[in-house]
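For reproducibility, we list the full input for the FE2/S2 (inorganic) cluster complex.
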Amino acid sequence: MTSLLESRFSRASSGAFQPERVLRTARLVSGLVLFTFVTMHLVNLSLNLISIRTADAGLEWLMEPWQTVPGTILLYGAAAIHVVLVLRTLYLKRTLKMPAREAAQILLGLLIPLLIAEHVIGVRVYGSMTGTVIDYEFVVRALWIDTPLVGVKQVAALLVIWAHGCLGLHFWLRYRDWYPAAAPYLLIGAVLVPVFGLLGFADAGKVVEGLAPAVRPAGLTIDRIREALATKDILLNTAYLITLVSVALTLLLRSLRQKRERRNQIEVRYESGEIVRVPMGSSVLEASRAGGIPHYSICGGRGRCSTCRVRVIAGEESLPAPGAIEAATLARIHASPDVRLACQLRPVGDVTVLPLLAAVHERTVPSGIRAATPGREREIAVLFCDIRGFTALADHRLPYDIVFLLNRYFAIVGRAVEQSGGRLDKFIGDGAMALFGLETSAPEACRQALNASAAILADLERLSGELAGEIPSPLKVAIGIHSGPAIVGAMGYGGVMNVTAIGDTVNIASRLESVAKEFNAAIVVSDKAVDLSGLDLSGFDTIEISIRGSARPLHVRVVPQDAMFQNGFPTVRSETAA
Ligand code: FES
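The corresponding predicted structure, in tokenized form, follows.
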């Protein structure tokens, strides 16, 4: 079964034409073009804070490229593609029930053409038909003095486009390693760029109020101006009509398709007993939404986060093969063959599923209690650490003694983790779990985890020396380190709520700690974590271990108890060094 799935994955990931990927790229690229245009527009507006002349000079660099033939094709082409793809998303939705942020993205996307049409068409048509030079004085006079309502509409348009673009960028970038660190600076930029732009616009408005109206160009008659304004109105109304008809047509086609599909329904059954009937072609996530069943979908159904994943309990014969996006995500999380992404899975018959990251009904959470968050996927390093032979050590000792010893040990682990840049996740009996990389990159996280291990071992040796007369033998720990994707979020209930991590990476790190015990080693670290760290651990033995649920063995480095440490990292075993 695994090899069957693997072959499906490799087939889906081959170089074959993948329309969904192409459309996603088209949406992204067109969005980036529009966002670049709006950013340049806002930056140009903010130059008015220096002077209108400076803003006019900026037009040449920032706005005129968009008025050339290639610039016009690029801008209008991007706008058209983006709107068409938003309409397509709307058409494909089996249910209009969706998270607020997704609804906001669609709504903002559809509002944009309606809001910018007046300004864009007005400036272009009036300028070309009357031969008027459209500079900032002209535009600001028109929007600030002559038609302030249109001015307000333009400000709203800029803010809507900006918000839509920022939301889109956030959803695109939020899983990048560098994003959490960059997010505060990007947020400052996201606030300052429109604020400076609008302040520049207001400043220019006040300056223009004090200027005499511009002299009408020689030869420009009132009739010609009326003709230009009438043409602008015709084009504007046509643009409004096209947009509204497109939306109406999309909704009409969607409801016709739904009518057709209603004759051909499937049942999505949940292990909890709920049954939702949806038109064939709906995704399992859409079924959950239609049935009001809580279902995590952190990436909004884009097939990237894997939080919507379900185990298929029955109805395997109704499952189409995973597409390229789904296959890639399932491969990334090493999903077992019966696991599928609910947002991508569109069964062609009845199925029974079990959502693997179970969401809670809001009403089951007592008010006043901070709800758990589903978290998000991050590349992190996880460290597990456990005292060796603690049970024997605790035998025949007073509980006070054990508490004293444990607290010294916990302090050593806690300090080492924090000073290395990690976060202590929890103590479990005499063991500890720590996370690295919540605010840094995966390579740095791996270096931090190895650095923390070295500090734990060194401090424990010191403690053993201090307690030499009190304990039968020096204290030893077994440490396991692995790096990979994990879901990180606030989990728990009520007052017991912590940011923690779950997933295969955590399980494997725990398994490596057990391997360290089996091999009487100080540290067992996966080759992946070593490679990411960039440290040279080639002096240590490599072994292969099996991991439950994975057909492939895992290569790990075994750092023995007598290893040497240099600059806070394991280097080589002592006899080699000697
Ligand atoms: S919602 Fe993110 S993968 Fe399905």
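The pocket of FE2/S2 (inorganic) cluster is lined by residues 297-299, 301-308, 329, 341, 343 (CB under 6 Å). Residues 1-16, 360-372, 574-578 have pLDDT under 50 and may be disordered. Both points were considered when choosing residues for closer inspection.
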